[in-house]
Amino acid sequence: MLRLSNLTVLRGECPVVDSVSFDIDQGEVIGLIGPNGAGKTTLMRAALGLIKHSGTSSISSRPHKERGKLAAFMPQSREIAWPVPVETLVTLGRLPHLSLGAAPSETDRAAVSAALDALDLGGYRNRLSTELSGGEQARVLLARALAQDTPLVIADEPIAGLDPAHQIATMNAFENMAAEGRSVLVSIHDLGLAARHCTRLIVMDRGKLIADGAPLDVLTPDLLRDTFGITAFLTETADGLIFLPLQVTA
Ligand SMILES: Nc1ncnc2c1ncn2[C@@H]1O[C@H](COP(=O)(O)OP(=O)(O)OP(=O)(O)O)[C@@H](O)[C@H]1O
Predict the structure, then answer these.
(1) Mean pLDDT, residues 168-181
(2) Global ipTM
(3) Contacts 24+ apart (CB under 8 A), 162-171
(4) Is the predicted pLDDT of residue 100 greater than 80, yes or no?
(5) Ligand 1 atom 7, closest CA
(6) Is any ligand 1 atom within 6 A of the Cβ of residue 45?
(7) What CATH class does 2-248 carry?
(8) Is 37 a pocket residue for ligand 1 (Cβ < 6 Å)?
């Protein structure tokens, strides 16, 4: 799905992504976690070939035209500039599959409907995107990425600003994609949702990948103290992992 090898991004002389390597296999929901400024967004953009980098990404090394069929991206910025209906905006996700000037086919319309339903937006088709709340706009932009129907979705803080039900529903939508054999790389600050819904966590700190594994193995007291500066309660229950941040360490 994605292979990164020694991916490095420099800002001036300083590496903000520093020789990061990992692979994403089919059926994974990978939470990309780390403190503010750790390099998560920069890593995602470099992997997609949106910014200059050294090292290799199996997606950025492909021709531009092919990339839109390999990976969809939901950026962190939520600004929707055009006052177009929600359905029109989500249909833009189908552009990599359409030949120039072609109208959306039955398959395209089905993908748009599935994405709208997955994000609980069935009733919003005809609403103007610019007249939605911040959380609703975030769901529309994620629906556009899901409608692209790519093997890999890369989403930059997709649940920030969503209410609890829509946060869980969004993570469930990712899990459903993984069950179909697709994969998701999602940056996320809510470690509780990350622990419960991700199959694997990758931790970045100051540009470096410092941990990569199953949530229970990654979210150790040492890592939480050294990287996030917190203590937390973490336990395994019949209902999945429960993680609760407790205190800021001195
Ligand atoms: N255009 C830029 N020019 C210079 N430095 C930048 C630029 N964009 C990001 N940086 C720096 O690169 C580092 C990594 O930023 P990045 O946005 O990738 O972090 P992040 O882990 O996504 O953070 P957050 O959790 O706050 O979204 C930060 O120190 C940031 O200040």
Answers:
(1) 91
(2) 0.96
(3) 162/135, 162/138, 163/135, 166/119, 166/120, 166/135, 166/139, 167/193, 168/193, 168/197, 169/119, 169/120, 170/119, 170/139, 170/142, 171/29, 171/196, 171/197
(4) no
(5) 11
(6) no
(7) alpha beta
(8) yes
Q: Whose structure tokens read 């949530």?
A: 215
Asked if 81 and 100 count as a contact pair (C-beta separation under 8 A), the reply is no
Q: What is the mean pLDDT of residues 59-70?
A: 89
Residue 208 identity? K
How do residues 144-164 score in pLDDT, each as one tens digit? 999 999 999 999 999 998 899
Neighbouring CB atoms inside 10 A of 18's CB total 19
Q: How far is the CA of 40 from the centre of ligand 1 (A)?
A: 8
Lowest mean pLDDT among 29-38, 54-63, 165-174: 165-174
Q: Is 203 in the pocket of ligand 1 (CB under 6 A)?
A: no
